[in-house]
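The protein record now logged underneath.
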Amino acid sequence: MKLIIVGLSVFLLTFSAWAGKFLEKFDDRDLEEWRELIWLDSDIGQTSWEVVEGTLEGATRSALIRLLTMGDERWSNYDFEFDVKPLEKHHEGNITIAARVKENRTVVCIIGDSPRFEKAGEAFAAVPEPMATCMGGNFHIATGMRIFAQEPSPLLKFNKWSNLKVSVHGDTLTFWINGKAVLGPVVMEPKEGTPPLLTGKIGVGLASYTARFDNLAITGNSVRNNGGFSVSSRAKLATTWGQLKRF
């Protein structure tokens, strides 16, 4: 009996060391570990990432999605969520949540102006409309992404905080907006001849928007509890990261 109790204690201690919640509130450390990943690896347009009033503010007029990513490429099954407040929409664009980011490959769910797809890879309407779309694959190749699911969905309200959440467990994905599952669970089936998207970091992103992000939370068995680790705004001074590393 003692051996069972000891063994169970060791298991629980080991499990608790790996199961946890990683929090990001943008108020206490720097952004050296953040990296930018850009759709098609394009230098067209510029992106500004600033810490403003304890929140992350991103701005770009480019129609190409800009992702700001961080975390551990070994993260596998987890829930990732954040609060976002759109401030301005410059043209047709979107707000993006990313999961399982590994090198140039990622899973993304977007809420914004998108062409409707009848099925993966086939455009159904030339005129963009408000849609929720989840897809995954190689972010640097125009034909590298596969559409997993898509449904009409209203845009996020300006100057109001909304919550986006994505859950990736095994080969299934669910996308929530303000607590409502708008897509999923769906199977993340990779494009033919490409490996599945099993592990990776997280990211926030936008295209042709100015928006603020806050209260990032990643929860999962492979995520170490960071005890409330936060990114600093250096005494709340706005800092532009023009020299963010890209990959």
Notes: Helices lie at 2-18. Confidence is low (pLDDT under 50) at residues 1-18, 227-243. The CA atoms of residues 86 and 211 lie 4 Å apart.
